[in-house]
User: Which sequence fits this backbone?
């Protein structure tokens, strides 16, 4: 019968199995990738690592709360600017876009700092 009736999956190859339209592999030292599926598998692998690292970083931010006298002492703008300056330099070294790294970290740090303030409020009892 009709291999692709209306409302069913197409019989054309999924996007993930298609070959590149142009160019040669540029990732992993020129060894990847041959398919969009391979590209996405690697992105998913890296994202898993990033989430684990965000979680681990958070564990230390929460730890920092124990060294602050009260919630008002949690935010340290000087330290934040030091972090951003260092990370922009690392981004240049690694050929990552510095503005993306900065925006990502400003969002992360803002959220972490709010969490740390809550932990400080709960933990710093007289
Ligand atoms: C973790 C700390 O507390 C806050 C959170 C920071 C962060 O997420 O890196 C940096 C400075 C502070 O605003 C710290 O003081 O080191």
Assistant:
């Amino acid at each position: 019968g009709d291999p692709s009736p209306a409302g069913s999956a197409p019989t054309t190859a999924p996007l993930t199995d298609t070959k590149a339209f142009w160019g040669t592999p540029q990732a992993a030292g020129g060894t990847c990738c041959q398919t969009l599926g391979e590209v996405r598998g690697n992105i998913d692998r890296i994202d898993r690592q990033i989430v684990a690292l965000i979680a681990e970083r958070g564990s230390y931010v929460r730890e920092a709360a124990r060294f602050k006298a009260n919630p008002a002492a949690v935010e340290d703008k000087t330290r934040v600017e030091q972090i951003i300056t260092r990370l922009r330099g690392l981004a240049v070294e690694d050929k990552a876009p510095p503005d993306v790294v900065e925006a990502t970290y400003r969002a992360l740090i803002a959220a972490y700092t709010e969490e740390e303030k809550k932990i400080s409020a709960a933990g710093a009892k007289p």
User: Anything to note?
Assistant: Residues 30-123 form a domain with the Chorismate Mutase Domain, subunit A fold (CATH 1.20.59.10).
